[in-house]
Each structure stands twice: as C-alpha cells, then as structure tokens.
C-alpha cells in the first residue's frame, strides 16, 4: 500500500497533480519572496481558476488548489506571463533552491547569499544534463543568520560558517556532513554534486537520502571532489519566526499559517499590509509568512483572520496534511482532528511540533520524527510514538475521540 501511495510527483505549473479537490499547481517563488503586486495576482488566479485555496509548502512554495481541467490552460498562461512557470529551458528543478528567509537584510548573517543563490540557479538552468535530476531534488543555501535553515534537511545543503574570520560553506548531503567549499565555489560545488548524484544513483526516482544509505556520504563526496571537513551540521528545532521584531533596519511581522492552509482573501490582506508598510512578503519552510517592511506592519488589522500571531499558539504544536476530502489518498479529516488535539499537544511541548496527524501513510506534512504520529487508515488512525508514518504502530483503528483520549493520558502521565 505504501509503495502505491508513493506513486506521484512534485506538482509544478506545467505538471499539475490530481487530488481530491481537483488539480494542484505549485508555484515555486525565487527565494520565497512575494511582492504585494504578485501576491494579489496569485490571489486573483486562485479565485478565477481554482477553489480559492492555497497550501504553503515545507519548501516555502505556494500550491493553488482545486484547479479544473477547463481552467488549467488559462492558469498556466497567466502564471507564465507572471514569470512563475518553469519552461523546457528552465525546468522546475532549477527553482528548487530554498534560501534563508531574511537573506540580504539580516545583520546576524555571515554573508549575503543572494549572489550565490543566483549563480547556482543559473548553473542548474544552463547545464541541461541536470534537468534529469528528480523533480523533488532540492538545495538549501543558508546564511547562518537569525532564521537559519540548518534544521531543515534536503538533498544538498550549503550552510554558511566562519573559520578564523573567513566565511565558507559546510556542505551536507541529506543532512550528513560531506565537505566544504569557499563562498565563490558554491555553484561549481553544486554542479559537481549533482553530476555525481546522477552518475551514482540507482534509479531515476532515487533521492540523495537513498543514495547516502546505499553507498555512504564519503563515496558521493569523493565522486564530487569535495574538500573534506571536520564540521558537522546542527539539526536543532526550527527557529522562532512568528511575532513582531526588528531585523537590522527592517520591521518583521511573522505570521503562522494554520496547517499551511490559506485562502485568496487572506493573501490579499497580507499584500495590503505589506504595501501599506512599504514591504514585501517572504515565505518560510515553517508554514509561516513574514511581512518584511520599512515601517511597522499593522498586525492589529489582521486580528479578524485565521492567522497565528505567537509560536505558543496550540496550533503550532500540530502538523497536519490537507486530509480528506481534499486529498484523494486520505481517509480522515486531518484538520478537524488536529484542531481538537492542539491544546493537549501544546501542554506536552512548549515549542515545536509534538503531534503529526497524517491522512495516509505518505506523511507529507511532517516527514521527520514526531513524539506522536497518527496515521489515517480506512477512516481511523494508527498510532506511532517517537517515529514517522513509516514506523510500526503501537495501536490501530483509533477513532477521532480516541485520539483525544490518547493525548489526555500522556498529559496525565506527565502531570502526575
């Protein structure tokens, strides 16, 4: 069953994916930045061509939902005109670069990674052999600043470090230290790693994590000619992005998006707030949107819409996929169940994800371990402790009411 569920792809503009509520079209934004004008244009697209809903993905992309067969082509044309579509010359893999959300303005950053990101994107576009990379193959470029991406894992990560006052990048492959490179060598190192991956992979669908498990990091680093390193990545919890704070000369308002779901009206309101404060929107991989502005954004004017204004909010303790009926694979209403579980989950962990509610065995919302994972199956849930949806459950066939009871019992044990 799990193998069958994995038969899918990473949706893009030209390769949408069918789901329970229609087609999904993913828009990959360069560096996760969204001007007020572009935000409004996307909101209009959601209204005209879809069901008005978006999902904010774990790669800081926006997915338009509910696209119909008749509206797909005009949507694709609109997104192409907006410069948001991949092309045959620049496939979606050339856009799979996640950069630090505060890049370019963060005084805590080791360097401004903007030029490095653009060089890497250009190289991924121009080297046609790299178009054979899997659609989900991704890169992270982290500046070492306040909102670090070091806690995130992807195929290839470049993490800014400093040694003796000189900045460099620590390179990790699927979260494992593999080498290092000078700042100016990032694009070349990325090319060599990608070529080594293509040479060594066992199947077109294999990702870096699978290759690392199969042959080890050293073999890949050797093939790519990486300089050795004695440093190791630090996989702490994601940083606190939500709230109002200053970053250098900028004002930042971080807003959580419950379970990554927002609608077109919410996006329009965020565009208005950003424009009024001479700012822009920046998306994060933590299902949060930042308003980065010259003057303080008016948070009070957003109080009437369903956003999260504090990391302490119970909803930030639960990760949940779209669930049924939005997802064709899901058999449970994950958002509804997650909202009921959130208060108990927050009592068990002050910050970060404690409970993962997945509508099926794919575990899209939270592929890493969670203290408690509920996996939808045939309208009920299986329970995994300290694991992922791939691990063996300790209980099966739990109803929504029994999920609450299971968490209440955990709370009672901790409080005792």
Automatic annotation (TrEMBL):
Keyword rRNA processing: no
InterPro entries cross-referenced by the UniProt entry: Cbl_synth_CobG-like (IPR012798), NIR_SIR_4Fe-4S (IPR051329), NiRdtase/SiRdtase_haem-b_fer (IPR005117), Nit/Sulf_reduc_fer-like_dom_sf (IPR036136), NO2/SO3_Rdtase_4Fe4S_sf (IPR045854)
GO molecular function annotation: 4 iron, 4 sulfur cluster binding; metal ion binding; oxidoreductase activity
Entry-linked Gene3D superfamilies: Sulfite Reductase Hemoprotein, domain 1, Sulfite Reductase Hemoprotein,Domain 2
Residue span, Nitrite/Sulfite reductase ferredoxin-like domain: 16-79, 249-304
Alphabetical UniProt keywords: 4Fe-4S, Heme, Iron, Iron-sulfur, Metal-binding, Oxidoreductase
PANTHER family, sorted: BLR3264 PROTEIN (PTHR32439:SF9), FERREDOXIN--NITRITE REDUCTASE, CHLOROPLASTIC (PTHR32439)
Protein known as: Precorrin-3B synthase
């Amino acid at each position: 069953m799990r193998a069958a569920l994995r038969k899918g792809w990473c949706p893009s503009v030209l390769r949408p994916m069918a789901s329970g509520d229609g087609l999904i079209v993913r828009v990959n934004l360069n560096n996760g930045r969204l001007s007020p004008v572009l935000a409004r244009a996307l909101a209009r697209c959601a209204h005209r061509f879809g069901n008005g809903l978006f999902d904010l993905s774990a790669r800081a992309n926006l997915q338009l939902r509910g696209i119909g067969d008749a509206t797909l082509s005009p949507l694709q044309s609109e997104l192409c005109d907006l410069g948001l579509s991949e092309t045959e010359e620049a496939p979606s893999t050339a856009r799979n670069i996640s950069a630090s959300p505060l890049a370019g303005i963060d005084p805590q950053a080791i360097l401004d990674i903007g030029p490095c990101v653009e060089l890497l994107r250009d190289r991924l576009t121009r080297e046609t052999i790299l178009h054979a990379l899997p659609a989900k193959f991704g890169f992270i470029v982290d500046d070492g600043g306040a909102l670090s991406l070091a806690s995130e894992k992807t195929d290839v990560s470049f993490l800014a470090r400093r040694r003796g006052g000189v900045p460099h990048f620590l390179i990790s492959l699927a979260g494992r230290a593999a080498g290092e490179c000078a700042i100016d060598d990032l694009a070349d190192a990325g090319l060599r790693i990608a070529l080594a991956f293509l040479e060594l992979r066992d199947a077109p669908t294999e990702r870096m994590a699978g290759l690392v498990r199969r042959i080890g990091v050293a073999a890949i680093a050797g093939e790519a000619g990486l300089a050795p390193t004695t440093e190791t990545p630090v996989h702490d919890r994601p940083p606190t992005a939500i709230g109002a704070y200053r970053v250098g000369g900028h004002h930042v308002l971080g807003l959580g998006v419950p379970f990554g779901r927002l609608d077109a009206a919410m996006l329009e309101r965020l565009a208005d707030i950003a424009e009024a404060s001479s700012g822009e929107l920046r998306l994060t991989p933590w299902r949060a949107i930042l308003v980065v502005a010259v003057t303080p954004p008016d948070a009070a004017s957003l109080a009437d819409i369903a956003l999260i204004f504090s990391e302490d909010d119970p909803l930030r303790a639960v990760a949940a996929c779209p669930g049924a009926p939005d997802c064709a694979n899901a058999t449970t209403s994950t958002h509804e169940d997650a909202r009921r579980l959130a208060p108990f989950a927050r009592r068990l962990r002050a910050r970060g994800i404690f409970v993962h509610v997945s509508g099926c065995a794919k575990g899209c919302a939270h592929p890493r371990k969670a203290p408690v994972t509920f996996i939808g199956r045939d309208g009920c849930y299986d329970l995994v402790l300290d694991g992922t949806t791939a691990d063996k459950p300790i209980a099966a066939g739990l109803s929504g009411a029994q999920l609450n009871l299971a968490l209440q019992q955990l709370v009672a044990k901790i409080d005792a």
